[in-house]
């Protein structure tokens, strides 16, 4: 052990005490120097961008040997100061340890004398002062040089008068007044000069023509597209679970669900691969941004996962992620704004500027929260790339609400609409809005052995109530009392310590159950009963798949944004006639019973009939893993919204529509001897056109004939010839923006054509109009796809 004599110890201790003011002085000098450098260099050079900006005339000021030497000397001195402070910190820490334990000793010969340190600090301070003068001289010289060079280029940096760029001069004026409003402009090299404005507006944005003298030096070549890679089905989901992240209860729930269904996804992938055969599938690069889980949107779902909150959205997102991954596409998942900005290439600032690079993703799946975040941070790139976005939208967005100008003029504007997207870019949980695309989710599929076991283990008098929140049970005592006469009632209502008072004492409440235990409860129950809320959730399908009969209430009048608070503000006018319209319309009896709960006799009669009814577990194909894979595969292969839509109204000399009147003279069909429209999807030969009765929407008109309304077929019908072939006399024909057109108005014998392609809509009706409706067939159990769509 190295030791020193007692006198040395005392000298060291005194020296340490004496050095504390010096350490504070050194820190002050360091802080002052850092502030000076940040202000002088950071402010002047980053604002002026004299040396390193690709958008201003280059100078040699910051590249000269003199300036480089000065800056290097400043760096060396700062580094020396840091080392001195570090040494002092270690000495002070050592002194504290020395006082704490007398057996620790330090070599006295390593202790610098106080006087020498003071001289070194004074020398550093003097050097910093000299450097400050030198930096000031360099800046003055560089500004003078910059002004001279700019003067020589001024004649080449005037806003051009080019009819191809009519907004150029106006944008330059805006930049003069507002270029400091967002730091992103300085990031791209804007420094307040005319040249920087024009370079930015021509090379970063696209409002001005390229400057001729920039062609060879600054023109950026478009990156070469990556070689196409074929997508291959995946069955191992371990990497997907890593991609989904952690740290939120919602993500934990989603990962558990994905892991539990791994075997079913693998089996579905094998089946679909056999069905598609040798079909070539290009691998897509896909970003999935779950906006409602970001902290910026409030993330109200995660804290409620374990407290009975809604899980439908998380069920759907977990299945979307899994389907995209199993199909073999490249996937990136973000649940924070910072991750989103990083993956998109958002420049620093407030979101006014375009992205720093071409969008690296072929598709983006997000929700309304994520859509808003992208619009705020992508600048003009949002308009450029929005055709690649797919919006997961539970209740749907109708065209009248989606078109910003039309929605504003006609009272359809809400907090969630007016995005001017192709309505098919909105993807719903159930196929209730044919103007949108049906995304869906999956329910667990049972094999034949499991079905037999469930059927044999059913209790004939056991009911489970649909509703995990106590508020759903409030005011339902009358129905529960009737049901209790015939069945044992079970609930899964969340509570922390005390039983919720809304749940009657005769109800056996299990509390909030994990999904596997909830499934076991459904497998024993005879009846799954809903009390009107929540709307259109996944639980009724899960109950039916586990052999339950679903009993729900009929709404009279139907619920909509006009009369019900839940739907108010949502971008749809759809009328909901029951708690779960899909179950009522696409499944129906004996699995689904819809009755008037306000009629006690009808309600009690339904209970008695259900007790006598035997059903097998049933799951529609479109809600199986294979059905969802098939549907998303078709969308990715065939939906391309980046192709510019054609005009809604045919030109005056356009050929006649390729339709013929059906033999029974009720509707139009695609003529057999007519070539198909190239690139049309669904294929044009699936089209059937019907004239609706007054006041009937196209959605309902097509369903009346066992078909589905197909809005992508509207352009084929948007002509006077289509009316003539349906033997409709048009005394006059006009084209206007109206989501009900094309249509025939009575009285007056007037035919109206659609002027705006984004307003073609299956939804909407008016007693004044008979709408011209495009319908198509659909695959059994897969309403989203026509017979020839796969």
UniProtKB/TrEMBL annotation:
<dbReference type="Pfam" id="PF15024">
    <property type="entry name" value="Glyco_transf_18"/>
</dbReference>
<keyword id="KW-0472">Membrane</keyword>
<protein>
    <recommendedName>
        <fullName>alpha-1,6-mannosyl-glycoprotein 6-beta-N-acetylglucosaminyltransferase</fullName>
        <ecNumber>2.4.1.155</ecNumber>
    </recommendedName>
</protein>
<dbReference type="GO" id="GO:0030144">
    <property type="term" value="F:alpha-1,6-mannosylglycoprotein 6-beta-N-acetylglucosaminyltransferase activity"/>
</dbReference>
<feature type="transmembrane region" description="Helical">
    <location>
        <begin position="21"/>
        <end position="41"/>
    </location>
</feature>
<keyword id="KW-0328">Glycosyltransferase</keyword>
<feature type="domain" description="Glycosyltransferase family 18 catalytic">
    <location>
        <begin position="184"/>
        <end position="775"/>
    </location>
</feature>
<comment type="similarity">
    <text>Belongs to the glycosyltransferase 18 family.</text>
</comment>
<keyword id="KW-0808">Transferase</keyword>
<keyword id="KW-0735">Signal-anchor</keyword>
<keyword id="KW-0812">Transmembrane</keyword>
<keyword id="KW-1133">Transmembrane helix</keyword>
<dbReference type="InterPro" id="IPR026116">
    <property type="entry name" value="GT18_cat"/>
</dbReference>
<comment type="pathway">
    <text>Protein modification; protein glycosylation.</text>
</comment>
<dbReference type="GO" id="GO:0000139">
    <property type="term" value="C:Golgi membrane"/>
</dbReference>
<keyword id="KW-0325">Glycoprotein</keyword>
<dbReference type="InterPro" id="IPR052105">
    <property type="entry name" value="MGAT5_Glycosyltransferase"/>
</dbReference>
<keyword id="KW-0333">Golgi apparatus</keyword>
